[in-house]
Amino acid sequence: MLSRVGERNSAEIARIMASYFRARDEFEPVSRQELLDRLRAGSAAVLDVRPADEFANRHLPEALNIPLAQLERRLAELPSDQEIVAYCRGPWCVLSFEAVALLSQRGYRARRLEDGFPEWRMAGLPTGQSSAP
For 42, which DSSP code? Predict the structure, then answer.
């Protein structure tokens, strides 16, 4: 009996999660390769919406760290003439979805990285590291 309840709840959670992410992801995500190409061309700004301590450890090259909770009040720090690519902890991390939704509502061109920092690093792609204050 408990097993059936768990299976039913698990399926319901999966359905809710899929619905949430589809609703929040109306724009096609940016692939790692596309982001690398756009960074080389200078045609995208990278926004890391993870907490500052995670950013300080390692982050994507040229990324600006604005944790999601601070994004609304720090919008002026973002370029208005470039598309902004937000990323966070992975493909199921809601921080980048929420950041893109907020930025789009405020008139910014914004998309999210298709996955997140862990996948970027596991792929052996370049990272930056902040010096500790």
Answer: T
- Name the one residue in this structure whose structure tokens are 């052996």: 124
- One-letter amino acid at 78 equals L
Predicted local distance difference test score (pLDDT) of residue 56 = 95
Task: Give the span between the Cα atoms of 104 and 101, in whole angstroms.
Answer: 5
Parts of the chain with a pLDDT under 50: 132-133
What are the residue ranges of helices labelled H in 25-93? 32-41, 52-57, 68-71
Which of the residues 88, 99, 101, 113 is marked catalytic? 88
Backbone φ, ψ for residue 128 (5° rounding): -110, 160
State the virtual CA torsion across 103, 38, 116, 13 in degrees, nearest 10: 60
> What is the distance, to the nearest Å, from the Cα of residue 10 to the centroid of all Cα atoms in its chain?
25
* Residue 93 among the catalytic residues: no
The CA-based diameter of the chain, rounded to the nearest angstrom, is: 58
